[in-house]
Each structure stands twice: as structure tokens, then as C-alpha cells.
Amino acid sequence: MTVPLLKIGAVLSTMAMVTNWMSQTLPSLVGLNGTTISRAGTSEKIRFGGVMPVDPDDGWQVYTSAQAPDGKCLCTAVIPVQGTCSRDLRSRQLRQLMEKVQNISQSMEVLDLRTYRDLQYVRNTESLMKGLDSRLKVATESQKSLNTKSFQELKDKMTELLPLIPVLDQYKADTKMIVQLKEEVRNVSGSLLAIQEEMGAYDYEELQQRVLVLEARLHACMQKLGCGKLTGVSNPITIRASGSRFGSWMTDTMAPSADSRVWYMDGYYKGRRVLEFRTLNDFITGQNFVQHLLPHPWAGTGHVVFNGSLYYNKYQSNIVVKYHFRSRSVLVQRSLNSAGYNNTFPYSWGGFSDIDFMVDENGLWAVYTTNQNAGNIVVSKVDPQTLEILRSWDTGYPKRSAGESFMICGTLYVTNSHLAGAKIYFAYYTNTSSYEYTDIPFHNQYSHISMLDYNPRERVLYTWNNGHQVVYNVTLFHVIKTSGEL
To answer: Is the pLDDT confidence value at 5 over 80?
Structure first.
């Protein structure tokens, strides 16, 4: 009888070789040893942590910054059409491959422990097998010496060796698994090498340092980045589908970046229930929220959350209300003199949208209209503490012809419809009290927008579109000097 010790040794040797390759070669192969991977060509690219991705095919956001010969600080923040929030395809593939690597490593650890245990058993039975082999040889050469007692001893020894059979069967199965793992390792290795070749032979630690330097330069430049003119709006990014056809949702435009709470108000009139979600992820899944019950019902969908308070129009009145979430109380309410209400001067979609609060880089605004200005849109700067009107502008644009509107950097942008085929059609500049007609494409994916607001902290548009909560990235044109002056 022969014991397959050579096969056992081959299994252990193969496992040791492959495990060593997996633990040492793979991480350094493509820089996956804790280094963040980015790709750089003629321009440097870094990820932008903005709104949570929904579409896995969303692109990257590309930043560059430089100083021109005349001393100007040149900044570019380009938002691709597909959005800015998902991981690069190559990064996802690398992550998936590393998950395979981890699975293979775990399988090999199990094999290693199993073969070590079984090898010890085989070694312990080696002397027993040698003794049995000697007795069998003697019995074969001289059958006379094989009496009843000797025969029974041989049977007992054979019985002791019976547990070795399943051990050897397990070794055969393990050998087959090793072959499969080796093939999987070859496949993973080939995929990683292909990705490495495509991404370029970079020293990823050096690249990481370059990314950090670029990010620091970008942030320094972005701090000087004041307001700009709207030149483009991305395709819509659907965050969630929930609620009725009309409603509003928002984040606090004044909260620190770590605060990602989301407020949700379903319906356009008589509502009092406000849901506060802890994070955007919780909002997407509909979990981890608290409920606020407003003391007065709302009208329309033109609400905003600004510095911990909700600003909204009280139902069946031109009274505006400031409700503080933490204290769960109304801090102040005031009548917006002469402002229309109860569908006197709504947007084209109706819905008691007479008074629309907005927030931009310059603070809190109210958009509405009055009989005195013949139903044309009035833009008023509002004191967030007292709700007093600080200054007003008559834009000359009829509010009933507007689909929705929003403020960016002191400029009111108006869409010409709330339905499919809408575009950003009109811009009113409060800094110069002037206006112009624009032609900025605006993709209305679900064909009925009942809320549209700009968030200056994230530089995105929030919309409620026919029961869908949607965001749009915006592109602003900037010219900035090194002194920070526009």
C-alpha cells in the first residue's frame, strides 16, 4: 500500500505559492495597498464629494486651477452631463476584483488549515502503515506464518487505518479546488494587468500626493470663487420616487458640510407634517426620520430650510412663517404686504404657489407678486431674523407665465413652463436691476415640476417632479482676480 505523501506536499506547496502571490504581489500590482487611485493625463482629475450618486454611469467632476501671467486666478469646475457622483468604471472593476481576491484568500486559508490538520493525521499513521506493510510482506512470502491470531491482528490494524480513506478523498477534492483557484488567480491577474495598462504605469503613492496638492490648490482657488452666471444645467439625477404629484424637499443651505439632513414635505396645501431624515442615504431608503408637526398649515411648495429654520407661507394668507426645528416653535411670522395668495398669482402649474422662498449665496429671498405691479414677479430680499423686506425689484415678467424660478448669486432665473420642453428663459439681475432673455436647456424628465430651488452650499438645483425627487448640477461662469474681486 502506498501513501500519497508526494501529492500532499504538492498541494501544500501550491497553496503556499499562490497565497504568497496573493498577499504580496496583488496589492502592489495596481497600487491597491491603501492608496486612493485616480487617473491623470494632460490634466489632473479628482473626485468631487457632492450629491449621492444614483446612476452608476455618472461621470467625474474635473477641476483645474492655475495662475495666469496677468495675475488672475483661473478656476474651472466642469460638471459633465451625466452627473458627478458615481465612481469611475475602472475603480468599480478594481473593487470587484479585490473582492474576488479576498474570497480566494479566505478559501486558501481554509484549505491551508484543513491540509495542515490532515497532514498531521497522515504523519501520525505513517508508522502504523509501515508496520502493516511489513506484516503483509511476511504473510505473502510465507502463508504458513499467517495463523488465526496473526490474521486477526492484521484485520485490527487495517481497521485503524480506515479513517485515512476519507482524509485522502478530501485531499483529492482539495487538489481539484486548488486547480480552480489557480485558474481564478490567473483570470484576476490578467484583468488587473489590463486595468494597470489602461490606467498607465503610475507610482500611485506619488499620484496620491499630486491629487492632494491639486485639491489644496483647488480649495484655495474656490474660496475666492464668488458668484457666477448660469451657463448650463446637467441632465436630471433622480434621487427617489415618493409622495404625491406635488411637494418639496430640501437640505439646510447654511448647515456645515457634515450635516446632510433632508426635509420632506408632501403636498401643496393644508399640510403640516414635515419629515426630517438624518442623511441623504436615509432619505433614499425612507428610514431614520423624525416628524415635525407645524402649528400652521402651509400653502404651495416654495419652502426653504435656512440656518435651522423652515420658512413657509401660511395657508389661506399672505403671512410668512419662520419655524425653528430644534425648539419646535414659531420664532416669527409676518404679513407680506400686498402679496397675492390662494392662487391669485401662482406659477403656471397653480398649487397655491403665490409666495416662493429662496436662498442663494446672498441670503434669503421671497418671490411673489401684487396687484400693484400687475401680476409681474417681485423679488424681495428678506431679513431672515425678522422677515422684514429689505429691498424689492419688479422684474416685469408675468408670474402666471413662469413654470418655476430660482435664485443664484442674486439673479432670478425663470423657466417658461412646468411641463416637458421647458427651458430657462429669463434672468433678472438684482445687482444691476436689469434683465435678459436666455435659452438654457432644462430637461424635465417627468413632465411636471412643482418645486425648483437652488442650494448654494451644494450648488445644485432641487426639484419635485411628478412624485420624483430630482437634482440638477449647474455650471456657472466665473472670472476672478487673485485679489478675489469679481
So the answer is: no
Q: How many CB atoms lie within 10 A of CB 261?
A: 19
The C-alpha angle with vertex 310 and arms to 308 and 312, in degrees rounded to 5, equals 165
Q: Are 438 and 431 in contact, with CB atoms under 8 Å apart?
A: no
Residue (of 301, 294, 352) closest to 323 by Cα position: 294
Rounded mean pLDDT, 170-193: 75
pTM (whole model) above 0.70: no
483 CB burial (10 A radius; 0-12, 13-18, 19+)? exposed
| % of the chain exceeding 70 in pLDDT | 69
Question: What are the residues facing 419 on neighbouring strands?
Answer: none
- Contacts of residue 292, defined as CB under 8 A and 6 or more positions apart, other chains included, come to 273, 274, 275, 276, 310, 323, 325, 328
Q: CA 207, CA 170: separation in Å to the nearest integer?
A: 47
Q: How far apart are CA 362 and CA 364, in angstroms?
A: 7
Contacts of 429 (CB under 8 A, 6+ apart): 410, 411, 435, 436
**Secondary structure (H, E, C), the chain:** CCCCHHHHHHHHHHHHHHHHHHHHHHHHHCCCCCCCCCCCCCCCCCCCCCCCCCCCCCCCCEEEEEECCCCCEEEEEECCCCCCCCCCHHHHHHHHHHHHHHHHHHHHHHHHHHHHHHHHHHHHCHHHHHHHHHHHHHHHHCHHHCCHHHHHHHHHHHHHHCCHHHHHHHHHHHHHHHHHHHHHHHHHHHHHHHHHHHHCCCCHHHHHHHHHHHHHHHHHHHHCCCCCEEEEECCCEEEEECCCCCEEEECCCCCCCCCCCEEEEECCECCCEEEEECCHHHHHHCCCEEEEECCCCEEEEEEEEECCEEEEEECCCCEEEEEECCCCEEEEEEECCCECCCCCCCCCCCCCCCCEEEEECCEEEEEECECCCCCEEEEEEECCCCCCEEEEEEEEEEHHHCCCEEEECCEEEEECCCCCCCEEEEEEECCCCEEEEEEEECCCCCCCEEEEEEECCCCEEEEEECCEEEEEEEEEECCCCCCCCC
- What are the grid coordinates assigned to 47, written together? 473626485
pLDDT at 333: 97
Question: Per DSSP, what are the bridge partners of residue 451?
Answer: 464
